[in-house]
Design brief:
The chain has 261 residues and is mostly beta strands. Helices cover 11% and strands 38% of the residues.
């Protein structure tokens, strides 16, 4: 096994964060993860990304960012890359990307997709654009009668998702992993700022062109708990054939000027 460690960045890049991906005080977390993953994959030869965890140390603002990636470990079947994004000399995000080869058959079946109408029978949710600007970049079609800010009894949201403008499969999947409204919004009737502190995404299947560039992804976001200034969400994602393709877990901060009753 060959292992590589570096005390200096193995690669760096200047990136541009577009203002149209603005969320709350900063940029959309999934978009930031997609940018970081794009830098990380440049250090790994042929291995698919299977897990990624990003910590948000500060808000990423629209404009140029500097990315630095370090290959922490590499072998024939796995690799780990750490990526930092900086603005104005300050690190804003730290990401750990885990790559591993796809081998063997699935032994334990994945959680099945919920039974919902197909995307073609669901309505666009344009109201999402009032909650955060980046929603203009997405097609969001709620698949159940529980909508954001509807005062429902269950903190769970289910919707079909896709990007309005196709991108690479990996970028698409990481962006969509943070595309759903916060799960707690299902039980609220007024929005509360809950920016991300940390997001972890696990890819059950390597993203492929045929499943992501033109198709829909079904996402179900559940709020695990909200209180004491934090909110925790879990999200499962399936392709149109009902195959579980990714899961995410997110820690959010409830801003002091917000209130949850």
């Amino acid at each position: 096994m060959a292992v590589s460690t570096n005390s200096e960045p193995a690669t760096s890049a200047s990136l541009l964060v577009e203002e149209e991906w603005l969320a709350w005080p900063g940029m959309h977390g999934g978009r930031v993860m997609a940018l970081s993953a794009g830098v990380a994959t440049g250090l790994v030869d042929g291995l698919p990304l299977r897990a990624m965890s990003t910590r948000f140390l500060g808000a990423v603002r629209p404009g140029p960012v500097e990315a630095a990636a370090v290959l922490d470990h590499a072998s024939r079947s796995s690799a780990t890359v750490t990526v930092s994004l900086s603005q104005d000399g300050r690190i804003t995000t730290l990401s750990t990307c885990s790559f591993t080869a796809s081998t063997g058959e699935i032994v334990v079946p994945a959680r099945p997709a919920p039974e919902v109408p197909p995307a073609e029978e669901c309505n666009d949710f344009r109201e999402a654009e009032l909650l955060y600007p980046f929603a203009r970049k997405l097609d969001i079609r709620p698949a159940t009668d529980i909508l954001p800010l509807s005062g429902a009894s269950r903190a769970e949201l289910t919707a079909w998702l896709r990007l309005r403008e196709p991108e690479s499969p990996l970028s698409t999947m990481l962006t969509l992993a943070d595309a759903m409204p916060p799960g707690v919004y299902a039980v609220l009737d007024m929005p509360v700022p809950v920016p991300s502190l940390e997001i972890s995404v696990h890819l059950h299947r390597p993203p492929t062109t045929e499943t992501l560039l033109t198709g829909w992804t079904l996402a179900q976001q559940r709020n695990v708990q909200t209180g004491a200034g934090i909110s925790i969400d879990e999200c499962d994602m399936w392709d149109e054939d009902g195959r579980l393709v990714a899961q995410s877990r997110q820690l959010r901060r409830v801003l002091e000027n917000g209130s949850l009753t």
